[in-house]
Amino acid sequence: MSGQTQEQIGTPGRPWGEAEKAQWRARQSRRRGYADEVLAAIEPLRARFEVSEYGRLDYAPDGSYPLLAIRGRDWDDALPCALVTGGVHGYETSGVHGALQFVDRHGGDYAGRINLLVAPCVSPWAYERIQRWNPQAIDPNRSFFAGTPAGESAALMELVAPLRGRFLVHIDLHETTDSDESEFRPALAARDGEPFEPGEIPDGFYLVGDSADPRPAFQQAIIEAVAQVTHIAPADASGEIIGSPVVAPGVIDYDVVRLGLCAGITGAAYRTTTEVYPDSARATPQQCNDAQVAAARAAIDFALAHGGDAGGG
């Protein structure tokens, strides 16, 4: 729906009802293929990894979407676990393809060291439509809580639930795009019946840590690794990135559990959310994927080096 004006749906100042949400969904169109671009990329990985369907989203008339998880064949219940998630927001392309590139090129590096679990495309309907929300106009990355109405979030939480308490690290791969400001934030304001307040999109990579357990050394190790691949977003004139204070170069913090963010689902000692900026004139699509891979590797390597020791963060 890029280029359309979401404020035209409904009445300004009044939250959307079911009719407005149906109108919004009717405007969405399939712009790329989950089967062709994601499932096809996962298929060759079956030779080296375990691939399982952890859920299925039936979104008639658009189709049925299998949700796939990838894990190491050498799973050992005596080892801690690492979770890598991508595509919670389907339009954030490098989150999906960065996760797949990480598994393909580096997943085997952690055999016998940590149990690796990767969910590369949490929101396939939104992936196809280059959209932030699911078909019910729900943002999955504000919906990771008990009784969630978002099927994407519910399925991932069910996958993770048996392993809670065993995760050492979780990195959730995202992007911040120009369309956040031009399309998705105006849509959010319209949906919720609130005025749209313009913001500023940062040029570069940054991280969102957990304000309840920020682990600054962990976050900084990731920033340093990614800086070898692409540039780090500077603070704006107010010392902020997307309205939040910069607590260290390229790092802001959110209360991830309270906000229902994916990064809060595991209880891992080390957790963070990446934000790649794919619209930068200084970054190619491959650099964006490489930045996600560098972040995932740095996160897991740091966690393995420091264990659950609070002194490591």
From TrEMBL:
Region (Disordered) location: 1-22
Protein name: M14 family metallocarboxypeptidase
Species of origin: Luteimonas lutimaris
Organism classification: Bacteria, Pseudomonadati, Pseudomonadota, Gammaproteobacteria, Lysobacterales
